[in-house]
């Protein structure tokens, strides 16, 4: 086994100025060389077949149950239950984000405290019941209460799935799978439009928006029960793996220092998550994306309708942008995993977002150009999600630090989503200069800040190379569980 060069100085100073003792002999792992690649591919396929379908269906369900409010608006919800008031509709949208933000960090840490399948399943059941109950609401207050509970359920689920993936997959395997996961949200936009279009043609004494809530809410209840019963929990306790497969999985995780052997909460990791300045900077980038995402969730059918379509046609014409966004998301995140880069792809997607909002602001009479812009903003609103989540997962040294930072993406980044319900008033159609302008400005800010973070990570990796006498050897044991991203040997993904 090759040995690392030893230095007379036995101490290492990390980026925060904290000095750690450098062990006289740095332990190297042979795990990478022991992995049978054919067996690993077979194991990955088995994991994908068990984990991806359920988590993808959960995200599809969550986005349908969260986003159907925009479709229901065009089918009479606002006129019949909210007295046609734009401000009341905005408050209904806002109510979801209140609980979603408050419970995101505790909700993500819950998957560290209890088996993840129970935590995720419980979240699914909460939002599913609440979404189904919206069909029976008879008052403005009732709709708000249901939306609050949908926010609670999704806060337990949202970023916890990213944490769950990091328990099973290596760093360069996460983004592609997150793209499939988040891609379900893009497909939800497409399916939501198709379902809403079909429901709008139902002839019944029951309002069509109530039927829409029932059709999209009730199946999620069954899904939540299935998640509790069948989703693999953690590698060390899941009955889904044979003992041979379990050992192979441990070898895979140890080869990238991802096997912490600790299922509880490490409060030092929690502290590191809250005190690391990088957490807040990357969270700001995520908030720029959240403004576009929340704008799409509440107003995309309305924006499409402003191009000159009827209510029913607007539901249908939301489908192609979401379909193209899904394909683009898979391709760009696959490329990100292959190149092991996150930041440059984040910049690329935000540039597409900028193009879309520039067109919407500057072009008013050309419907084809504005419809093309709708494709751009769907790509910009969704495709950065798995890229940023993977960036956070890769650059968090321990599971507890990762859980806090992932939770912060929802709890802090959604300040932008709080503004979106109020920046697209009906009176401003079809230009919506305020809504489009704010989205454009924050997308430009995201490009600038992402560039700064790429340069910082490059600088910090080079500094650590110099201090530690070179890049860490492949398979080198790094004390990430104890020292998090400050551990000697840890390097950031750019």
Structure description:
This protein has 494 residues and is mainly α. The chain is built from 22 helices and two strands. The chain has helices at residues 31-34, 37-74, 77-81, 86-102, 104-113, 116-133, 140-157, 160-168, 171-199, 208-230, 243-254, 267-275, 277-305, 311-317, 319-339, 343-362, 367-382, 384-394, 399-411, 415-419, 433-468, 480-483, and strands at 11-13, 19-21. Strand 1 and strand 2 form a beta hairpin. The longest helix is centred in the N-terminal third of the chain and has 38 residues, at 37-74. It is globular and about 65 Å long.
- CATH top level class name: Mainly Alpha
For the record, give the distance between the C-alpha atoms at the N and C termini, rounded to a whole number. 29 Å
Oligomer: single chain
Q: Quickly give the structural class.
A: mainly alpha
Task: Determine the CATH superfamily.
Answer: MFS general substrate transporter like domains
Spans with pLDDT under 50 lasting ≥5 residues? 1-31
Radius of gyration (Å):
23 Å
Silhouette: globular
CATH architecture: Up-down Bundle
String of helices and strands: EEHHHHHHHHHHHHHHHHHHHHHH
What number is the mean pLDDT? 83
**Could you tell me the number of beta strands?**
2
Q: How would you characterize the largest beta sheet?
A: 2 strands, antiparallel
Helix residue percentage = over 70%
The percent range for strand residues is under 5%
> And the CATH topology?
Growth Hormone, Chain: A
Read across the widest sheet, the strand sequence of neighbours is 1-2
Number of structurally distinct domains = 1
